[in-house]
Specification:
The chain is built from 18 helices and 23 strands. It is an alpha+beta fold. It has three domains: 1-83 and 196-392, Bira Bifunctional Protein, Domain 2 (BirA Bifunctional Protein, domain 2, 2-Layer Sandwich), CATH 3.30.930.10; 86-191, Herpes Virus-1, CATH 3.30.40; 402-513, 3-Layer(aba) Sandwich (Rossmann fold), CATH 3.40.50. It has a seven-stranded mixed β-sheet with strand order 3-9-10-16-13-12-11. Helix 3 (73-79) crosses helix 12 and helix 5 (101-127) packs parallel to helix 8 (166-175). The longest helix is centred in the first third of the chain and has 27 residues, at 101-127. It starts with a helix and ends with a helix.
Length: 514
């Protein structure tokens, strides 16, 4: 099965099992907008809890806020979004489809890396145990040609981005013979810039209405509240402000399911520091955030850092944490050193003094900022991609299982009476009543016990508890573990303790702090 086929199966699975639905589907949907179903919303809320608690509970100097989506229009002038929040777009004249020029070039470079890896695998098969990968990469003429071509394009690409040279971006696309995925042709238009912010009107009459924007990021709500939080919380540098909230971008090239959407959710933390210490904190937050991802146990090799080729107008350092999705390594989180750009600009545009008095240094100054920004939806897709597994079992059977970390699973326990009579459903309900105050628990009595197990595997439920006639006699039940499918007999009185140990966030938090 190819990675593309796997991704299509994952998308279908998300809909079939109540994780994600196309928005307004009865009206044929709305492009790049999705709704979270009954299982999706539970997983999404658990992801947000994992992030929020790891930020706010584990750090005494980080607090949270919830800023409004609507903000004064001058906010976006000060932040630079009105003037500079653009994507370079190019159209294919034959398919009439629009693409981001930078993404087309980045995907071409990624394909060169794939070619190199294919050459390595062919050589590995040819030479067997004697194969030395590093020596092969250093001496293979074929690999050298691919690397030279990729590096040459990369150099031109970085220079074009730095100079905002749209003509050169188009020329790179032509020189690399990049074709439209739909038409297969290279009949491209010129590259042009397109602002991504959604605008709307606020006011009681059309004539008196003013233009405002749906926020394209949540960070500015933190910056304009810097003094409110600092003074009311008596916060001392360094300290952070965390926020989870919706953001909106008019993405022309929205694809790859929920990876790039027009309405999405961000988890952002802005960490305010003394000027001159920002690089130390940037490196520290890089390590902390990578530990947060790796604590989930999907494999360290699935993550990597990718430094930005072009820095945003507000940054002096930036890197992404990328995850190996079925469609390749892509960004899930950004760690940026934003300098004093944001607070300084809001001070300039508002005419209000936005500074911190440092009692140790005896002076006022505008703090520098280190940002960690992660997309909830991309994190959701990361977890689903890593957790989705098709297994062949003994006897020729197959199952689809979501190996979601137990603490994040939508449902923690499914309770099942073996038959729908003889008092078994009543006992099952008693068990649910005892567990439901602490966990999301489901009741399932339809179909054979085997089919019920498969159904719970497909939604990632870590534990299935089967109530049978022996349960009435000795107060024990059979608990089945999702990943191993092993079953054990346990006392009903011990269930809550067992589940609590398995679904706790505590082990993950300890890994982050190690």
């Amino acid at each position: 099965m190819t990675q593309e086929e796997l991704f299509k199966k994952l998308i279908a699975h998300c809909k079939e099992y109540g994780f994600i639905f196309p928005s307004s589907e009865i009206y044929d949907g709305l492009g790049a907008v999705y709704d979270y179903g009954q299982n999706g919303v539970e997983l999404k809320n658990n992801i947000k809890r994992y992030w929020w608690d790891s930020m706010v509970k584990l750090h005494e100097n980080i607090v949270g806020i919830d800023a409004a989506i609507f903000m004064h229009p001058k906010t976006w002038e000060a932040s630079g979004h009105v003037a500079a929040f653009n994507d370079p777009l190019i159209d294919n004249k034959d398919s009439k489809k629009r693409y981001r020029a930078d993404v087309l070039i980045e995907e071409w470079m990624a394909k060169q890396d794939e070619k190199i890896q294919k050459e390595v695998e062919k050589a590995r098969k040819r030479f067997g145990e004697a194969f030395d990968e590093q020596q092969y990469l250093a001496t293979s003429p074929r690999v050298a040609d691919i690397v030279a071509k990729r590096d040459g394009v990369h150099k031109r690409f970085v220079e074009a981005l730095d100079k905002n040279d749209l003509v050169e971006l188009r020329q790179i696309i032509l020189d690399c013979e990049i074709v439209c995925p739909i038409s297969g042709t290279r009949n491209w238009t010129d590259v042009r810039q397109f602002n991504l912010m959604f605008s709307t009107q606020m006011g009681s009459t059309a004539d008196g209405a003013s233009t405002i924007y749906l926020r394209p990021e949540t960070a500015q709500g933190i910056f304009v509240n810097f003094l409110n939080v600092q003074k009311t919380g008596r916060m001392k540098l360094p300290f952070g402000i965390a926020q989870i909230g919706k953001a909106f971008r008019n993405e022309i090239v929205a694809r790859q399911f929920i990876f790039r959407m027009r309405e999405f959710e961000q988890m952002e933390m802005q960490f305010f520091v003394q000027p001159g210490t920002e690089m130390q904190w940037w490196n520290e937050w890089k390590n902390t955030r990578m530990a947060w991802h790796r604590a989930l146990g999907f494999g360290d090799e699935k993550y990597r850092f990718h430094d930005h080729d072009k820095l945003a107008h507000y940054a002096n350092a930036a890197t992404d944490i990328e995850f190996n999705f079925p469609f390749g390594f892509k960004e899930v989180e950004g760690i940026h050193s934003r300098t004093d750009f944001d607070l300084g600009r809001h001070q300039e545009y508002s005419g209000k003094k936005i500074q911190y008095f440092d009692p140790e240094r005896g002076e006022n100054y505008v703090p520098y900022v280190v940002e960690t920004s992660i997309g909830v939806d991309r994190m959701f897709l990361q977890i689903m991609s890593a957790a989705y597994c098709e297994e062949k079992l003994e006897g020729g059977d197959e199952r689809v299982v979501l190996r979601i970390p137990a603490c994040l699973a939508p449902t923690k326990v499914a309770v099942m009476p073996l038959v729908k009579k003889d008092g078994l459903p009543e006992l099952a309900r008693q068990i649910i009543d005892d567990l439901k105050f602490d966990y999301n628990v489901s009741y399932d009595e339809k179909d054979s016990i085997g089919k019920r197990y498969r159904r719970q595997d497909a939604v990632g439920t870590p534990f299935c508890v089967t109530v049978d006639h022996q349960s009435l006699e000795d107060g024990t039940v059979t608990i089945r573990h999702r990943d191993s499918m092993q079953q054990e007999r346990v006392a009903i009185a011990d269930l809550r303790r067992m589940v609590d140990e398995a679904v706790s966030f505590r082990p993950l938090y300890k890994k982050i702090k190690e």
